[in-house]
Amino acid sequence: MTPGVNGAGTRWESIPLTLPPGARIYVLLQASGGTLWVGTSYGLIRVHSDSGSYRQELLGPNSGLPDGFVHCLYEDETHGLWIGTQSGGLAQLLPTGIASITNADGLSDQNIQRVIESRDGSIYASSERAGLWELVDGRARQVPGSDRPPFLKSSFNVDQDERGDWWAAGE
């Protein structure tokens, strides 16, 4: 652990992680309970902190994750963790295990780039090649019109403002 403080007074801390050779980190999320989640090209790492020491737990295909390449992470308002993968669709970490939403559940592209939550608590997932889906009862329902220009290639840039209006930046 190597703590430090930058010029703005922000505290930085270095956490030692053991990654497989060639693995890359793509996303970090500190969940509301304090758990640090690390999305990598090899799986999802849960970092546990106990009185200044750290231990890590790797979740990958052997643990039920549909794909080891994690693109995005999102914690919803109920503290559920959503995991967007490169080729396995979307996963949700549940107390009982990992649930997946894939082509069989309505996704037409399993390369999930972003997960967001609307003001009413609905969960949405997006991909660069096929648009935006609303997730309802374990199924993905395509948002009408999101699978064609100008909405394609807007997967990282979809959001809802405080009035409930949706915004998407495309090419």
Mind explaining what this structure looks like?
By secondary structure, the protein is mostly beta strands. It has strands at residues 2-5, 11-14, 25-30, 36-40, 44-50, 53-59, 70-75, 81-85, 90-94, 97-101, 114-117, 123-127, 131-136, 139-142, 158-160, 166-168. The strands form five sheets. It has a four-stranded antiparallel sheet with strand order 3-4-5-6, with no helix packed on it. A hairpin with a 3-residue loop joins strand 12 (123-127) and strand 13. The chain is globular and about 50 Å long. The mean pLDDT is 87.
Task: Provide keyphrases for this structure.
globular, 171 residues, four-stranded antiparallel beta sheet, single chain, mainly beta
